[in-house]
Amino acid sequence: AAKGGAKTITVAQAADAVTLDPQKTNDTASANPMQQIYNTLIDLTPDMQLKPALAEEWKQVDDYTWEFKLRKGVKFHNGEELKASDVKFTYDRLLDPKTSATPAFLLASVKEVKVVDDYTVQLVTKEKFAPILYNLTHIGTAILNEKAVKETGDNYGVNPVGTGPFKFVKWDKSSQIVLEQ
């Protein structure tokens, strides 16, 4: 039931999500709720142009290095502030073969993720890779909170923590995923 003038919106899907860990799947039924829970560094406009999301700006430092300036004051749903260390943790986890990340191919060109300061991160690629910015708009590259992932371990996919417009509340398998603003 809605409280204090809040509205309830119900969205029906043909299938249940597989997981709410964006690194562990690449299916639409999982992506739909994840796009409400998480943000990526860069987003797309309706006409497919790049626009700032968690990164307020970015620049190409050289042929192999992209630098991203993070928005200050962004909070994860657990109250932790978004820092460059979360971006490095996220992308290192995505690329770690032990993670067996389904969307790892999106960043396969990345050789290293460097933290410059709390709000600046660099991606260094192995070769010139033109689609890197568009790949960073995919939900598979959504930024995770290091503390939340480490605290929940293997259960992270049913306890997601993001910076998106909606916070995860609960998941009744094969029935409903509840999010709140």
Number of helices: 4
Strand content: 15-25%
Count of strand segments:
8
Largest sheet features: 4 strands, antiparallel
Mass-distribution shape:
globular
Summarize this structure briefly.
The protein is an alpha+beta fold and 181 residues long. The chain contains four helices and eight strands, in the order αββββαββααββ.
List keywords for this structure.
181 residues, alpha+beta, 4-stranded antiparallel β-sheet
Question: How would you describe this protein?
Answer:
It is a single chain. Helices cover 18% and strands 25% of the residues. The protein has 4 helices and 8 strands, in the order αββββαββααββ. With 181 residues, the protein is of the alpha+beta class. Strands 3-4-6-5 form a 4-stranded antiparallel sheet, with helices on one face. The protein has a two-stranded antiparallel ribbon with strand order 1-2. It has a two-stranded antiparallel sheet with strand order 7-8.
Ordered list of secondary-structure elements with their pairings:
Blueprint: H1 28-37, E1 42-44, E2 50-52, E3 55-62, E4 65-70, H2 84-95, E5 110-117, E6 120-125, H3 132-135, H4 146-152, E7 167-172, E8 176-180
Antiparallel strand pairs: 1-2, 3-4, 4-6, 5-6, 7-8
